[in-house]
Design a protein that fits this description.
Layout lengths: L14 E7 L7 H9 L9 E9 L9 H8 L3 H10 L3 E2 L4 E5 L10 H16 L1
Parallel strand pairs: 1-2, 2-3, 2-4
Length: about 130
């Protein structure tokens, strides 16, 4: 689990991919804690990618949610931003994948999109 990961375990990595469910427009507390424990410069030269899972605005009956999302966003970009602040080098833009309900599963077509995103990471590393 991410809570068991130690910053020294990141030494020697060539690629770090971090993902989180979006909770209250943010990564989970465990992911935030993990990212905070990485020392400044701890990812120097490490290629990074970030993703989140999220509920589609179309699946929520709320007129308040869309403007809030425009202001606060989802978890992927803050994850990527924190990884870059630690010295990481992005290899692909942060991405979000849609789930049914709060816990999933992934919506139809999202597994294929995630696979394509992962393939693009590998292509970009060549």
């Amino acid at each position: 689990a991410v809570g068991d990961a130690k910053p020294e375990q990141l030494a020697g990595l060539s690629l770090l991919v971090v993902g989180s469910p979006t909770r209250a427009f943010s990564p989970t507390p465990a992911i935030k804690k993990f990212l905070a424990r990485i020392p400044k410069g701890g990812l120097k030269g490490v290629h990074i990618a970030a993703f989140d899972t999220r509920i589609s605005v179309d699946d929520v009956d709320s007129r308040i949610l869309p403007p809030l999302i425009k202001v606060f966003g989802y978890a992927a970009k803050p994850i990527a931003d924190r990884l870059v602040k630690k010295g990481g080098v992005p290899v692909i833009p942060a991405e979000g994948f849609f789930v049914d309900g709060e816990e999933g599963p992934l919506k139809d077509g999202e597994l294929e999109r995630a696979a394509d995103w992962a393939k693009q990471i590998m292509t970009n590393l060549r």
